[in-house]
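Appendix B. Chain record.
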Amino acid sequence: MPLSFEPPNEAVIPLHPVTPATLADVLAHLGDSATNWAEAHDYKGSFGAALAIPGSGGAITVALAGLGDETEQRRQRFAMAAVADALPAGLYSLADGLSGKALDEAALGWLLASYRFDRYAGKRPPQARLVAPDDVDAARIEAIANGEALTRDLINTPASDMGPDDLEQAIRDLANKHGADISVIVGDDLLENDFPMIHAVGRAADQAPRLIDMRWGSEGPSLTLVGKGVCFDTGGLNIKPGRSMGLMKKDMGGAATVLGLASTIMSLSMKLRLRVLIPAVENSISDDAMRPGDILTSRKGLTVEINNTDAEGRLVLADALAYASEEEPDLLISMATLTGAARVAVGPDLAPFYTDHDPDAEVLASSALKVRDPVWRMPFHDPYEALIEPGIADLDNAPAGGFAGSITAALFLRRFTDHPRYMHFDIYGWQPSSAPARPKGGVGQGARALFDALPDLLP
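Structure tokens predicted for this chain:
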């Protein structure tokens, strides 16, 4: 179901955003009845607290939305999303009190709060709905929310229904919706077209590995997005323990996130030339699976020693990045649920990114703060290059020692592109527990920050 604002075709309940500091003034404006009701419920305007105030007939006539104090707002995001979840069903409109980026955040948070993954569940109960606030670009907010919803749906769908075949179909559906072109190289054709590492990772699975190439737009600067599409990751012959394998339907979170970003870009008809490359595979186990100790020759010609078959994402991305670089786009971005080391470093909420281009990093960091989509720059630390050089081959896909795992993975990827404006994201793609605007499950990371930054990254 698309995430959208509602037309005011029924009675609309005014919703007043308040903080602990502004609550008294708002209540004084609303009158004694509202003041008495708030006092009776000990309402303070804390973060995410909702208060529906009835009129003399018992129906809700006005409501309050708690934004919290400065400390709460600094520690949490999307207060209005929490309010949306707490209010009774009905149609609401935001009264005065928010403007600029705070209003945009409130409107987006509300839409994101209405997301439900209900493909396998029954009908959801009625929810609080929102009229598009004045002074927001409703089409833009809806496009961002629906891009995120696409990302979540793709990640949340189990691998039984989101293998390489299904991911390809989802991309075809997206391409058809927006008039994009798509081409796909499948199975042994990957070898004939010089994508040996994508083939090696996916050849053991029932569904053949493939490289999906979607293009949209005919004018403006060029942007290429590469997303890791490992639809399920057993670890291969270096099989994961069950505890680590349980969430591996999300190992195509990089692909899902770039597709959500692509959806937003195309929905709003941005003036750029967009290319999306998705190496879609399942890392399975069979007598044909790649083995520890194997040496693969990549599309770029670099040889790679396989010291752990569970470090497969960087292999499929490497061939795709080499291919993307041959066209020399203005900006090249990869996204992947690549390493556990990134989670140890920054936890599940921050999206680490790597770039050698300082101006791009500054623009992205500014946009991330603006749209409340947190990212954190990590270093392409050149002294660690030696860690990914095993001696027997040009590169090692899984350096021993366990240190700096996210950095060495990023350095590995950088070897396959000499693009001066290459940016890599090592995301988690999963919300471990529910938070405002982010229910437990699949989640996009970094896409909203990138979308906000694109006008400055690609002027």
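Further analysis of this model is presented in Appendix C.
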